[in-house]
């Protein structure tokens, strides 16, 4: 497993230039700060003894300039180092989350994952800056302690009496705080996940009059958050007053020892002034409560980021797609489990190249799981999925994405403009390619009515669910893979529009392998073959006209006409995917995510 410390260190390695600058300026600044009280003592003793003080004063001025300059450079370096580390952590987390397919899963709901990506990475990324700053303060403090011992051993001893209580206080703070910081962030993540779920289903909530109940559900973890927050504040309060009593007590003790040493002639007036300065510097080690708190929050944030980074991601293959392959899909002994539930049980299926296969079945039969397996959006627990005889796990990511494309029920509106959204999978597509794909998907008519046509920003394009689905189909057409998976991609279209779009797609993809997750009898009837999933297995495989002779097969569509299975599947997903839209699909959510 990736330790939080290793995670932050790896991110630091990507911004090593800023890290080196921050560390170097911290050391130089500490050296200048430590030398300043000594130079000031020399200048004061020279004035008292009526000796020329020009040299010591110039040294003081040079040291002051050094401290100011290194302080400014350290501020700049800390900013670059901190922001670079946070950016590196966010890239690592986002890449692993997408590679491992964790967004929206039960362990990592969308709201919680967004919290880890924003606040968690920011807190973890701040650890390096905090450590550099705190280390500089501790280094300066240690130098101050050494200087006190060199000036007079009794003064150094008086200060050192305050170190053991400080160590005890710091250790108690970190031991008690580490669990509280993590618990606080986890509770925040749960609230974020519930809130995002409620926002996604705002229309359904409003239509059903359940706003009050949903508010109570979203805010249910709030008392726990409050209790944890109060415990954190109580810990800060207790540590604060303990340190607040310790620091003045040590200062008084040290200054008393210095005053007695001056009276006995053991130190000069300038050296007493140096004692005052070095005491203030040495006290910096005793006043690091804010740094301890920041480090505790950083450690908790790093642990939450590491939980996602540690998720296993499928290893990329190294083989290209074989030349001359036409898109034959083969599933051999494929088994998939979700917890203790068997979703697919040793499924064997071959989809010949150029075939349109409709996959039908009741809710929970494993249709979407099978669709995800074809493009390696999900790994089988056992068995092999292959295209043109090459297992997907052996194909390079580029070869796999060229070979398999998807159109989803709720396409994500990725890109800045309508044209950019359609060409998202193929940025080099020409405008003519985009328009042709939109025309085939029957999207050109409503796109041309938008304020700026294909150049209309997505934020300014009011689109219905059916229109967004047609844009998703246009995007798949531009992608033009050998195998296209339509995962309920026509569900928001009326029957007549679906028939027209399906005919256009059949013409455009006449030589492509198509796998359609079907809920309507008309979709199954237009396919070359139908795979009927039941209880995790393929109950029957054949043309729709043959399967229609089976009473149970006809009953499948009769049931879906009463309670549309797309809706049932959607509600089933809503119980496990808090990011799912709980409302209807009349208007698309521009931020809805496709499974990746």
Explain this structure.
The protein has helices at residues 4-13, 16-48, 54-100, 110-151, 153-160, 163-200, 202-208, 211-218, 222-263, 269-282, 289-309, 367-374, 397-403, 418-422, 431-440, 444-447, 465-479, 495-508, 521-526, 544-547, 551-562, 565-576, and strands at residues 329-338, 341-351, 356-361, 382-387, 390-391, 404-408, 483-487, 513-517, 529-534, 537-542. The protein has 596 residues and is α/β, with parallel strands linked by helices. The protein has a 6-stranded mixed beta sheet with strand order 6-7-8-3-9-10. Strands 2-1-4-5 form a 4-stranded antiparallel beta sheet, covered by helices on one side. Helix 4 packs antiparallel against helix 10 and helix 5 (153-160) packs antiparallel against helix 9.
